[in-house]
Amino acid sequence: MSELDELKRHIRTIPDWPKPGVMFRDITPLLQDPRLLRAMTRILVERYAEAGINLVAGIDARGFIIGPLIAHQLGVGFVPIRKAGKLPFETVSATYDLEYGQATVEVHIDACKAGDRVLLVDDLIATGGTMLAGAGLLRTLGAEVVEAAAIIELPDLGGVAKLREAGVPTFALARFSETEQ
Known about the structure:
Layout: H1 3-9, E1 12-15, E2 23-26, H2 28-32, H3 34-48, E3 55-59, H4 63-74, E4 77-83, E5 91-98, E6 101-108, E7 117-125, H5 129-140, E8 144-153, H6 159-165, E9 170-175
EC number: 2.4.2.7
GO cellular component, one term: cytoplasm
Protein name: Adenine phosphoribosyltransferase
């Protein structure tokens, strides 16, 4: 079994959570296993080691777990992209649509600057709204989003296509169809 197959096998699927029909993809088994956590981090670090990245931005909340691990190994800084109202300094914000309404994410106005090359990370690319909002914030501050990386991609929900249409390359360690167990 390949390392990527093993990582995928350890992503727990929880049917009908948080609502009927949803197949929730839970990464906590990956995070609990030190060998798999190291493998996941190593694969991502190797991918970006020569990409000239000088910042990693992580999206609230699981991007806060993955992002600092990658940033530390690459020897670069980390930028948190938070839910609205959680950052103490002056921010820029982006609002995006959710299945049942809207959400807003924010970043400090000095989180990055023109010319910065940023890797954007989260646990999951589903509809793409959160990643698009995060990429938009970083671009507003003048940064180049080198890639949007995630542990899981749900291609049936169209987020990867939306990100690529917006000029944001993507990468995910594992893909799941909407019905895959």
